[in-house]
Specification:
Helix content: 25-40%
Structural class: alpha/beta
Strand content: 25-35%
Number of helices: 3
Largest sheet: 6 strands, mixed
CATH class: Alpha Beta
Low-confidence stretches: none
Mean pLDDT: 94
Distance between the termini: 22 Å
Number of strands: 6
Order of helices and strands: EEHEEHEHE
Number of domains: 1
CATH topology: Transcription Regulator spoIIAA
Radius of gyration: 12 Å
Length: 99
């Protein structure tokens, strides 16, 4: 598992490669916790995410709360087919923009 981020202007793109589970919690939080500029947009690129568990869903919700506290938003980008299926099963398509 590897989590990395790229920041441009008010956009932070978070890349999640491999497994996204409880062991990712600290690394995931670290890539965005200092990004709290008004209007900050977070894109979570899940094109290389092979697996996610319920703790990963919770981490996405915490990111969404963080983004909203900055008057921004969080979006999920390019989920792999298996991850997209999980996101749809738990109705995250109602919580996030998924593209």
């Amino acid at each position: 598992m590897a989590i990395s981020a790229k920041t441009t202007d008010k956009t932070v793109t978070i890349y999640i490669n491999g497994r996204f589970d409880f062991s990712s919690q600290r690394d995931f939080r670290e890539v965005y916790r200092h990004c709290n500029e008004a209007g900050q947009v977070f894109h979570v690129d899940m094109s290389q995410t092979e697996y996610m568990d319920s703790s990963a869903l919770g981490m996405l919700l915490l990111l969404k709360e963080h983004a909203e506290s900055c008057k921004g938003r969080a979006e999920i980008r390019n989920p792999s087919p298996q991850v997209k299926k999980i996101l749809e099963m738990v109705n995250f398509d109602r919580q996030f923009t998924i593209t």
